[in-house]
Design a protein that fits this description.
By secondary structure, this protein is an alpha/beta fold. The chain has helices at about 20-30, 60-70, 85-90, 105-115, 130-140, 145-160, 175-195, and strands at about 10, 35, 40, 55, 70-75, 80-85, 100, 120-125, 165-170. The termini are close together. The structure holds guanosine-5'-monophosphate.
Length: about 200
Amino acid sequence: MPEQRGLLFVISGPSGVGKDALVTELLQRDTRLRYSVSYTTRPRRDYEINGVHYNFVSRETFERMVAEGAFLEWADYNGNLYGTSLAFVEETPRMGLDVILKIEVKGAETVRQRRPDGIFIFIAPPSLEELARRRAARADGEGQETLERRQEIAREEMAEAERYDRVVVNDQLETTVKELQRIIRAERAKRLRVSNAN
Ligand code: 5GP
């Protein structure tokens, strides 16, 4: 029997909702998940490691990659470009491993068009006020204007929630991680049932 193909999980939701912490936890607890490290033209933050958090590239390199068709999706977020490697998303499931993407909503929409087999999960904040509070606390060294612009984007992004397979409200980290683990387990069980039936 051929090796079971891996699944594609897409985690999206407004910036500051806690996607990073959730995905970090999931990856630590689940050895069958592989994180797709995005490419970005955004300047690296102090704590970020090239090749781990992102592949940091120049706009010129990014645009060349777009022209070469290297991205499954890419989007402009607040003036910076972010993209998902097509090769990684195609090759990893062939090894029987599940891929997890952590991307903003426009990119998730593109993935939905190209990969309708993906499992699309929207992470929502308990409220927009709480989201603003969390983002200010994180203080990425970005100015007030960027924070406000990100909040504006967040409001627009929230309107997209209904297009997702699942919406999970991130109130308590541990509760949300457990909920995501349940969703992943259920999808794996479903895949097994489908492939056994064929
Ligand atoms: P940040 O600058 O805070 O790291 O990321 C800004 C937003 O871009 C976040 O919502 C993040 O999830 C999203 N993002 C990160 N990588 C990608 C990607 O490859 N594609 C898209 N479309 N969005 C991404």
